[in-house]
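Hey, resending since the last one bounced:
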Amino acid sequence: MTRLTLTVAAALFTPLAAAAQTGPEDCAAQASIVAAAVEQRSAGEAPEAATQAVAGALEGRAEAYAEAVPLIVEWVWSLPEGQLGADVADTYEAACLNQ
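The structure tokens again:
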């Protein structure tokens, strides 16, 4: 997975939560959504079902990013199978923090 891909993804999703500022907690919240989407895809869920499951499980700071869930799920489904893993969320968080 390229750093550019993750930086672009982080830049696209962050503005969707206008009420939230992007800081370490916000990047961690977004990364938790990415991790949940990766888990759903790895479990064989369809994107629509994954979107509902991820959005329905949002808690705390992650709730501010509810509008971004469909885009994050779509992005996760666009990744090649070989790039899915636990490091996707960590790499996303690092890209978010570096904005």
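The chain has one domain: 3-97.

Sorry for the duplicate.
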